[in-house]
Amino acid sequence: MKKIEIVQNILEANESIASQNQRLLDEYKVFAINIMSSPGAGKTSLILQTIARLKDKLRIGVVEGDFASTIDADKVKDEAAAVVQITTRNMSEQCALIANMVSHALKCLPLGDIDLLLIENVGNLLCPAEFVLGEHRRVVISSLPEGDDKPIKYPVIFADADAVVINKLDFLPYVDFDIAAFEKAIKRLNPGVKILQVSCKTGAGIENWCSWLLDELKANRIGK
Amino acid sequence: MHELGVTESIVNIALDKAKEAQASKIVKINIVVGELSGFVPDCIEFYFDFVSKDSIAEGAKLHFELAPAEFRCRTCSTIFHSHDSTWTCPKCQSQSVEITGGRELYVENMEVE
């Protein structure tokens, strides 16, 4: 019997493909956002609002990740410059997108004709936190009906986020969601995070979200 | 479920290293999994039999070591473990903390013949 020391990160293969994805995106000057949330928090709605506000300024591509169906891709296909749907049902990872899936999606997109790529991850607050895709920024959406305890229950995804979007602000009169406590719980773990309040239903706060996106896109271009 | 892909990576790493060492059989693989990571050892074990079948890793024992959640206080730099979700610095009671451990997922070592 012989012991072999290894100490090798099991996610290294994913991280290496994610780096390749980012290099490809950088080559085409595409700014990519990984949008994560639980199911129903408003990922597709935020994407549609973003396209509606920014389509005159930016060419926007979308990658839709879902366990099954093309419902989300169908919703955005008339609005976005290009859409690719990834269904994870028959893949080895079903609960989150992984870098390899995005690598295939990038091959199907006209990268030269896209400025901003919005990647909608599979609805889930646990698994997407583990897999980087090659994105430039990570965004988590939390909606008021879900309750304000999510950063305590799923700390990792909030600790890594560049921005957290609080959606369904129009529900505030009907739910017991303590926005101050929610923001405090995130900032404890992630003091540099940008927190934005929006309602994709009424359009409130979408302008601030779009300004943040544009600022980050510019900062990313200057940084290259 | 995302443990299938992870199990495939574990088997690939183990087979590569076994080949380098010219081993004929993998007996035991020691894996470190962080308490805050989203990976479930039971699921990895479940997939392992299927993924390792007909390879020199077939029948190997998987041993999981759980790495505890570890935090660093942003105020006084104290490193501490916290098993509940209060994550408060035991020295200065600050609640501003950085996660420094508990997210691991790596193959530490293995025993081969």
Descriptive notes:
The complex is a heterodimer of chains A (224) and B (113). Chain A is of the alpha/beta class and 224 residues long. Chain A has a single domain (12-223), classed as Rossmann fold, CATH 3.40.50.300. Chain A is built from 8 helices and 8 strands; from the N terminus they run βαβαβαβαββααβαβα. Chain A has helices at 12-27, 43-54, 71-76, 99-107, 150-153, 155-159, 179-189, 206-223; strands at 2-9, 31-37, 60-66, 82-87, 116-120, 137-143, 163-167, 194-197. Chain A is globular and about 65 Å long. Chain B has 113 residues and is of the alpha+beta class. Chain B has a single domain, classed as hypothetical protein PF0899 fold, CATH 3.30.2320. Chain B has 2 helices and 6 strands; from the N terminus they run H-E-H-E-E-E-E-E. Chain B has helices at 3-20, 41-52, and strands at residues 26-34, 61-67, 70-73, 79-81, 97-101, 105-112. Chain B has a 3-stranded mixed sheet. In chain B, helix 1 packs across helix 2. In chain B, 35% of the residues are buried. The A-B interface holds A 1-14, 92-96, 98, 126-127, 129-131, 152-153, 155-156, 159, 187-189, 191 and B 1-2, 4-6, 8-10, 12-14, 17-18, 21, 23, 27, 31, 36-39, 74, 85, 87, 95-99, 103, 105-113. Strand 1 (2-9) of chain A pairs antiparallel with strand 6 (105-112) of chain B.
